[in-house]
Design brief:
It is a single chain. By secondary structure, the protein is of the alpha/beta class. It has three domains: 4-163, P-loop containing nucleotide triphosphate hydrolases (Rossmann fold), CATH 3.40.50.300; 175-347, P-loop containing nucleotide triphosphate hydrolases (Rossmann fold); 353-431, K homology (KH) domain (GMP Synthetase, Chain A, domain 3). The chain is built from 14 helices and 17 strands. The strands form four sheets. A six-stranded mixed β-sheet has the order 2-3-1-4-5-6, sandwiched between helices. A six-stranded mixed β-sheet has the order 8-9-7-10-11-12, sandwiched between helices. The chain is extended and about 115 Å long.
């Protein structure tokens, strides 16, 4: 059986900081604001010959105003406890034992789990009676740490390593797909529908998802890791820091993905905020698939109006694959995965120099390049430069003076010939230098002697 670890505790005791330190990542948002983590966040803790899944959970609390959200957060945390074999129960060692701490202790005793008690924030000077209180509740074995300053973390790692069996491996390799969109576009509902599990909290309240959450699963015998991200609101940079953190996590999710699926609420259409998010994804260089969600709520006539709307008629939108889905009705999933697989494979494809140069010759012959300052523009050769975005290096006798309309012509021609719909393409133009420019041809000794003989002969004449 694969051993996994769950970090559990009330809000703001340092669970996410500990998660980041143990996984050597920044996958969990860390802030003084309690309640930031709402869903289960997965990562890995690695030793030399051992590896274990570790789960960060939301803080279990009783005094949250939104009762429905409070129950959802607690439910996700206790699901993580059930899924794990080792529990790391984190307390704030600088504060007194709270009723929420006591309730968690009582409930944990009902599970047959290996529990490691951690007193965090031991670097803070305080005179609390939390150690004595824990002893009164039967918790006498604990380790004092400071996640923020990495105090005693090596000791904690040693304890964890001793409890994880050898060859404790799990394969979470797969195609990484980030799901982006505005709040309430149906991203979490979509993922829950695919995996047939209430893996992510779904609420009508916008902004329920904050972290970028990794969800590994299989579809048609293919391995995937979907990354659910927070909805990006308008004016996030000026709003509360939580929303800015969510935006940063979304950026990280894009960087780690092989494909980005942008989810749009078909009942609201493609608005200006959607275009800003799409531009952000395109700038990243990752392939992009647009999913129109909630199409079951839209009539055919309104859907036709959506496609004819100003934003949907933009040239870069027309270059995208658009799939109509319904997350609640589980419609359009096969088409979405078919396009996803194609885009991931095509975006990683490499093209040979000979293949690219044949294309270039065909494009130049079809439309001759313009003259620049009386000199004809000549394209010498083109070669492949990399992926994300698919990059081509075009060598010519000019680089900065090439007209933009001809650059666009070449880009569109390459995109069409290379089947790069929904895949970002970047053409870099470089000026080809004459390899012999500034270099004198060195004569051999024999040539030098012959030259001297000729000079003598000329002088005699």
């Amino acid at each position: 059986m694969f051993t996994s670890l769950a970090i559990i505790g009330r809000p703001n005791v340092g669970k996410s900081t500990l998660f980041n330190k143990l996984t050597k990542s920044r996958n969990a948002i860390v802030s003084d604001l309690p309640g930031l983590t709402k869903d289960r966040n997965y990562g890995f803790i690695n030793f030399r010959n051992k590896k274990s899944l570790i789960i960060d959970t939301g803080g279990i609390l009783e005094n949250l105003k939104n009762e429905k959200l409070k129950d959802s957060i607690s439910k996700q945390a206790w699901i993580a406890v059930e899924d794990s074999t080792i529990i790391i129960h984190v307390f704030d060692g600088s504060e007194e034992l709270s009723n929420e701490d006591i309730n968690i202790i009582s409930k944990l005793r009902k599970y047959d789990k290996d529990i490691i008690t951690v007193l965090n924030k031991s670097d803070k000077k305080s005179t609390t009676s939390i150690k004595d209180d824990l002893s009164r509740y039967g918790v006498s074995d604990f380790i004092e740490i400071s996640s923020e300053h990495s105090l005693n973390l090596d000791e904690l790692r040693t304890i964890l390593k001793s409890k994880i069996p050898d060859n404790n491996t799990i394969d979470h390799s797969g195609k990484r797909v980030a799901i982006l969109g505005r709040p309430n576009a149906g991203k979490s509902t979509f993922i829950n529908s695919i995996i047939d599990e209430d893996r992510l909290i779904v609420s009508e309240q916008a902004g329920t998802t904050i972290d970028a959450i990794d969800i590994p699963f299989k579809f048609n015998n293919e391995e995937y890791i979907f990354i659910d991200t927070a909805g990006i609101r308008k004016g996030f940079k000026r709003n509360h820091k939580t929303e800015y953190f969510s935006y940063v996590k979304a950026i990280h999710a894009i960087e780690e993905s092989n494909l980005v699926i942008f989810m749009c609420d078909a009942s609201q259409g493609l608005v200006d905020q959607d275009l800003k998010i799409l531009n952000m994804i395109i700038t990243s260089g990752k392939p992009l698939l647009i999913a129109l969600n909630k199409t079951d709520l839209v009539s055919k006539s309104n859907l036709e109006k959506l496609y004819k709307s100003r934003n949907m008629q933009l040239s870069f939108i027309k270059n995208m694959f658009i799939v109509e889905i319904s997350a609640t009705k589980k419609k359009g999933f096969k088409a979405l995965f078919k396009h996803s697989d194609y885009l991931i494979n095509q975006s990683q494809k490499k093209f040979s120099t000979s293949q690219l140069n044949r294309m270039m010759k065909k494009f130049v012959d079809s439309s001759s390049p313009p003259s620049i300052n009386g000199r004809s523009l000549k394209f010498k050769h083109v070669h492949f430069g990399g992926i994300y975005p698919t990059t081509l290096i075009v060598n010519a006798n000019h680089d900065k003076k090439i007209p933009n309309n001809y650059k666009k012509y070449l880009e569109n021609s390459f995109r069409s010939s290379m089947n790069l719909q929904s895949i970002q393409l970047n053409l870099i133009f470089r000026k080809s230098n004459n390899p012999y420019e500034g270099k004198k041809n060195k004569l051999s000794e024999r040539q030098i002697k012959k030259r001297k003989r000729l000079i003598k002969h000329v002088k005699k004449l």
